[in-house]
Write a structure and sequence with these properties.
With 304 residues, the chain is of the alpha/beta class. It contains 10 helices and 8 strands.
């Protein structure tokens, strides 16, 4: 009887392993997402949902509830989990970090009638702060998120104690790269996008590339709508950056090809009270790949 039970156990385990392997091969993106959500939970992140301006908005929060409040806004095609490396470090330093998924991204709603412009996303960020009773925060944004938080800081300066810009967009500059790569159509497009995002891109296995492209096609209409809005230049921030009064920290990957270091240097010149930290060897994904180099400067900035 014991031998039969062992055989049954081994057989069941093999079937489960085979099923998991087939599932991973068919939908690796779902597996990676699930792993990221699990890691966020294991590191103490709280996953919550609010209704803001009629839309369901998901967010993560980590750190002591009485800590210094930090709100971090992701970029185009991003989500709350993009801060997975930096947020725990800030939380360990005593900060309470909130990371919303903007409408159209992550686990938030994808409303068909929303514009996905940086200005309308900025309004959602302010409403998010209102919903949580956050009167004044340290506000940070990465890439498109940096553009969004610049608008918040300009239109609601009393709500922003300090501003942090990570490899930020927002200047009236025409991209030197093919913006269509943000909605890749082929493995070759995906390889080109990876090369733009990081100095030393990894080779993506073809079965994973296939699933990334599938997910990208589902989300492409949001990216197109956001990108079309940004490329008009109507919401460019050049004109009002010199008027900002709060302390500003600019963090930039030296090898960024999406928003080159020259953009960060120009923002630094336009904002007289700003500080610029350049991270050697890092590209546009600096908050993920180089969070440890960023963390000491950020913690010191929050303590000023």
């Amino acid at each position: 009887m014991k031998i039969k039970k062992r055989i049954w156990f081994v057989y069941t385990a093999l079937v489960l392993i085979l099923a998991a392997g087939i599932g991973f091969w068919a939908r690796p993106v779902s597996y990676f997402n699930g792993m990221m959500y699990l890691l966020a939970f294991l590191t103490g992140a709280e996953s919550r949902t609010l209704t803001i301006d009629g839309y369901r908005v998901h967010y993560n929060a980590v750190g002591p509830k009485d800590g210094t409040v930090v709100v971090l806004v992701h970029g185009l095609g991003g989500r709350a989990e993009d801060w997975r490396n930096l947020a725990p470090q800030l939380a360990n330093a005593g900060n309470r970090v909130y990371m919303p998924d903007l409408p159209g991204y992550g686990r938030s709603e994808w409303p068909a009638g929303f514009s996905y412009s940086v200005r309308d996303e900025a309004a959602v960020v302010v409403s998010f702060m209102d919903a949580l009773g956050l009167k004044q925060v340290n506000l940070g944004g990465w890439s498109m998120g940096g553009w969004i938080v610049q608008i918040v800081a300009n239109e609601h300066p009393e709500r922003v104690k300090r501003l942090i810009l990570f490899d930020s967009a927002g200047l009236f500059e025409t991209p030197k790269w093919d913006t269509r790569l943000f909605t890749p159509q082929s493995p070759a497009d995906l390889d080109q996008l990876e090369a733009l995002l990081m100095p030393h891109p990894h080779r993506i296995p073809r079965f994973i590339a296939r699933d990334i492209l599938r997910a990208s096609r589902q989300h492409a209409w949001v990216i197109h709508r956001a990108m079309d809005s940004m490329l008009t230049g109507r919401e460019a921030t050049d004109s009002f950056l010199p008027k900002l009064k709060m302390p500003v920290l600019i963090e930039w990957g030296a090898e960024d090809r999406i928003t080159p270091l020259s953009h960060g240097e120009k923002m630094h010149r336009l904002i007289p009270q700003s500080e610029l930290q350049v991270i050697p060897g890092c590209g546009h994904l600096a908050p993920v790949d180089c969070s440890r180099q960023m963390e000491p400067e950020l913690v010191q900035f929050f303590r000023q």
